[in-house]
Amino acid sequence: MNILVTGANGFIGQAVCRDLSLRQFHVLPIVRNSSTIPNAIIIKDEYDPRWNTLLKECQTVVHLAGRAHVAHDKTPETRALYMKENVELTLHLAQKAADLGVKRFVFISSIKVNGEETQSAKSFNPEDAPHPQDVYAESKWLAEQGLMKIASTTNLEVVIIRPPLVYGPEVKGNFLTLIKLVKKGLPLPLGEIQNQRSLVALDNLSDFIALCADINASPKAANQVFLVSDGEPVSTGSLIQRIADVYQLKLRLIPVPVALLKLLLKLFGKGEAVHRIFGSLKVNDIKARELLGWRPVVSMDEQLRKMRDDTMH
Prior knowledge:
7-stranded parallel β-sheet; 42% helix
């Protein structure tokens, strides 16, 4: 079975290509620029004539390519880029896939389609009314709607996956910043935070994507939306403690009132960080587990150890 993967040289894409290859699928990894991925196919735009040949050869498309989330930039030009890359190009590829007989299109969306934060003991569910709050989340939601419309008028099956924060070897962004902060060994004023955040290990997300890409193994995934996670939400303090334990570092968490920390962050122009540090974001992934029989393949501590070992080599 042939599976085409766009964005194959990205953080998630590389893991998905490895996972699919280990499952004995023939992977067609699509990249925009040169790549170290075996057999990578460089295609720079949607007009390349090779798309027709490649799509005719494959049964499933895993679509990871797109413009990633970048905070702060809210210009009209940036909005136009998100709409083109995350909506227009996604739907163009899906329609072409449908026209050429591809059976399934797996789209990696984002939990940000559901919203930025969950309240008290509540969790996000796949059936919740979407509440995107920035242009990135809006672009993902518009793409989802367009894909379901294509699915309703063609034979193409669509699977939408909305992961929360993904962590694993070679992670960047906020998670890497957190690791660097822990490694500095400085006392951190986060001892009072009692939030709950769902995360998903790269190995777990990759395994779930591979399952959804396998039409024979997941027939019930057709035209469904899934949330996926490690299963156990953690507080910011607990996450930092786990990172420190894995790296065998001493950690001092100082109990500073949350209200004071929030005020200080806003005063220093870091208001957007408040949600990520103090807010809760829990996801309910029972649909993925019950409908598809999926279970995480690694625990958080196992993934963190893998990250530690990867940086030592």
